[in-house]
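As a warm-up, study this chain.
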Amino acid sequence: MREFLDMGGYAAFVWPAYAVTAAAFLYNWVGARRALREARAAARRRLAAGEGA
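Now compare it with the structure written out below.
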């Protein structure tokens, strides 16, 4: 297991790269969820105001 975690001596480069990648995925996922929620709220407001259809 230790050999795997050491990544052949490149662990100092590999693990931060994984962390940055995971953070980018998380940031994109959260941003997409937020944008969807805001778009749905805007659509509901337009429909309630009679601007839809």
